[in-house]
Write a structure and sequence with these properties.
The complex is a heterodimer of chains A (about 350) and B (about 250). Chain A has about 350 residues and is of the alpha+beta class. Chain A has 10 helices and 11 strands. In chain A, a hairpin with a 2-residue loop joins strand 6 and strand 7. In chain A, helix 2 runs parallel beside helix 10. Chain A is elongated, with a radius of gyration of 25 Å. Chain B is of the alpha+beta class. Chain B is built from 5 helices and 12 strands. Chain B is elongated. Classes of the chains: A alpha+beta (about 350), B alpha+beta (about 250). At the A-B interface, helix 1, helix 2, helix 3 and helix 10 of A face helix 1 and helix 5 of B. Bound molecules: protoporphyrin IX containing FE and FE2/S2 (inorganic) cluster (FES).
């Protein structure tokens, strides 16, 4: 919640976060680059350029894997939410590691010929019609482009400029980037290796990402969050008894949007679950004095009108809400962002 | 969503006490994942085959007869301590370029070459110095060199570029290296067939197109892959040359 843009807003937690991630990357590269050649003690060592390219490529893969595991972990157990907090910085770091990988390849495999190395990248291998021997570099280029787009649009400025839904769509490119890296490695170096340690780590990482996402989806379906029945536009959320003061229930609407219904001080209010900042899950935030705090970066909203407290101006849509007996219902049509909705009083009997 | 009493984290505030231990453990775990995977992947890279740029032999200068197969070979007639007469050298320039242009007018003629040796097992190649110092016509009459026909063979193995195979790049073969190898071949570096079984005592041979033409473009799709093909084999000094019949090239499962 800033009134003006600052390139990067730092605080202690971000420093700590980046320090931990950077430490991981440095330890990985140090062990791979400086310790492992001694352990290998090959009589004719790999060319340093190839060894370096592999170190940075493998590191970028592990970084992407870790990034993509954090999301579902935080959905399954919210104690992981702080790991989600500064993922953008980690993503930018990944881009730089991946660029280093690609540069070693470009300056070695695609250099020393009379052709331009970037043209050579595209024409040296044109076996597009076959699986074995397919120019797997193509998938590497695609992932690198995705990472570059994500890193350059990662700042809040772009989110505001593109609007959060568009931004969020662009950021799902990360999944295409990951699948593409999997293809890159599967069609490339995995086909050549005699020693299968990398294959095992690689497959394990990819399965962890896929498995955690599937598990988180099932978990959410089982824990409330499912689509409601629509009668005249009113959708059942849950019974009042299931709601705890200061917390929300999240409901998915038919159009895919999520509503967060809050109970606080004996009243019910409903706003969009998507934070105006980065679509953080408002329903997982906590309410104090009508204000809900987003668990991702701490933006705050009044749950009765979806507005951030002055001097901030962010707004999210609100939803009409009513009680049908003991059942809480929301209306499927969102009100324009910032619309006040009278909170519904819960009778003592409920 | 764990339990409702999970401490609530807000990025710009101090981490709540109850979460601190959890986050410490998570951080250590993340770093450990990086450490273990870095060490494991790094220390289990395959050993490249014994090969190398032998700068340590120093610059070599020898004389012999140039033969275009169409890839230029030198049949050594006047050797030195390291390279004896009777030896056949494949030739290359620096980087990913061959010596086709420089050898063009010299087919069947005597020439003196100078450069460094690349070597892998029994196969070797000379990387010539630049310009006339690397390759120049020599005085004298070129002796007639023998080419022994060994008939038609079916072979199994992999097409590589002769330079990287010889140690310019390590590992220098295989699929991960395919685009790089193709770039070498497009640059006129002599292609080599690495056979899974020794043929007439040798497990590699210079490979050419049918009737000694250049490698057909279709074969670029199979570089670095396990294939079988038939062709006419001949021996030139201590080197084999295989003239492939490109209609017989087949991809094989290893
Ligand atoms: C222009 C883009 C890229 C090109 C040209 C490229 C090219 C290559 C090549 C030629 C190899 C095989 C290296 C060898 O073993 O000899 C390789 C391996 C690899 N690449 Fe890329 N790559 C690119 C981008 C990426 C990106 C963006 C990632 C991941 C985020 C990535 C991850 C990997 C991994 C994990 C390996 C296997 C490393 C190993 O052997 O341990 N690459 N890449
Ligand atoms: S998404 Fe950043 S504060 Fe809500």
């Amino acid at each position: 919640m800033s009134v003006k843009y600052i390139p990067v807003q730092w605080n202690r937690n971000k420093w700590l976060y980046d320090a931990v991630m950077l430490a991981g990357v440095i330890v990985f590269l140090w062990l791979f680059l400086f310790i492992s050649p001694e352990l290998l003690s090959h009589e004719f060592p790999l060319n340093p350029q190839i060894h370096n390219a592999r170190a940075f490529g493998a590191c970028a893969f592990v970084m992407l894997t870790v990034i993509l595991c954090i999301g579902p972990l935080a959905r399954i157990d919210r104690r992981f939410l702080p790991l989600l907090y500064n993922r953008r910085h980690f993503g930018v770091m990944t881009l730089f590691v991946a660029i280093t990988h690609a540069s070693y390849i470009m300056n070695w495999y695609f250099a020393f010929s009379s052709s331009d190395r970037y043209e050579a990248l595209l024409f040296a291998n044109t076996s597009y019609g076959q699986l074995a021997g397919f120019p797997f570099e193509f998938f590497g280029i695609f992932s690198l482009l995705c990472l570059a787009i994500l890193a350059t649009t990662s700042h809040d400025f772009w989110m505001k400029f593109l609007t959060p839904p568009v931004w969020k769509h662009i950021h799902s490119l990360i999944y295409f980037a990951y699948v593409s890296v999997v293809a890159h490695v599967t069609l490339g170096v995995l086909q050549d290796q005699q020693n299968h340690t990398f294959t095992v780590i690689f497959t394990g990482g990819a399965l962890a990402v896929a498995g955690l996402h599937a598990y988180a989806a099932i978990y959410e379906r089982r824990h409330g969050d499912r689509l409601g029945v629509d009668v005249d536009g009113w959708i059942d959320v849950c019974s009042v008894a299931e709601m705890r003061d200061g917390f929300a229930k999240i409901k998915i609407l038919a159009n895919g949007e999520r509503v967060a219904v809050f109970r606080q001080a004996g009243t019910l209010s409903a706003i969009s679950n998507a934070c105006a900042h980065q679509n953080g899950p408002l329903g997982e935030g906590r309410v104090l004095d009508c204000l809900v705090t987003c668990p991702w970066h701490g933006f705050q909203y009044d749950v009765t009108n979806g507005r951030s407290p002055a001097p901030f101006t962010e707004m999210v849509p609100t939803y009409n809400i009513r009680l049908s007996g003991a059942v809480v219902q929301v209306h499927r049509d969102a009100n324009p962002p910032g619309t006040f909705v009278e909170p519904v009083k819960i009778e003592a009997a409920a | 969503m764990s339990d409702k009493n999970t401490p609530f984290f807000v990025g710009y505030l101090a981490v709540p006490g109850g979460l601190r231990r959890f986050l410490m453990v998570a951080s250590v775990l993340v770093i450990a994942i990086f450490a273990v995977s870095g060490a494991l992947i790094g220390s289990t890279q395959d050993a490249p085959p014994a090969s190398g740029f032998r700068f340590d032999y120093g610059r070599q200068t020898v004389t012999g007869v140039i033969e275009l197969t169409p890839y230029p070979l030198l049949r050594v007639t006047e050797g030195n301590d390291l390279i004896k007469p009777g030896k056949t050298l494949m030739l290359t320039s620096a980087g990913k370029s061959g010596v086709d242009m420089r050898a063009m007018g010299l087919d069947g003629k005597l020439a003196t070459v100078s450069g460094v040796i690349l070597q892998r097992g029994t196969i070797d190649m000379m990387q010539l110095r630049g310009g006339g110092r690397g390759l120049k016509a020599a005085e004298g009459i070129a002796p007639v060199m023998e080419t022994e026909q060994l008939g038609r063979w079916k072979v199994a193995g992999e097409i590589c570029d002769g330079k990287c195979l010889n140690g310019a790049m390590r590992p220098g073969r295989g699929l991960a290296h395919k685009a790089c190898a193709n770039l070498c071949l497009l640059g006129d570096i002599p292609p080599v067939f690495v056979s899974t079984q020794p043929i007439d005592g040798s497990d590699f041979m210079v490979i050419t197109g049918p009737d000694g033409t250049r490698l057909p473009t279709m074969s670029y799709d199979y570089v670095g892959q396990f294939i079988t093909l038939e062709g006419d084999l001949e021996r030139r000094g201590d080197i084999l040359v295989l003239r492939m019949d490109d209609t017989t090239l087949e991809l094989t499962d290893q």
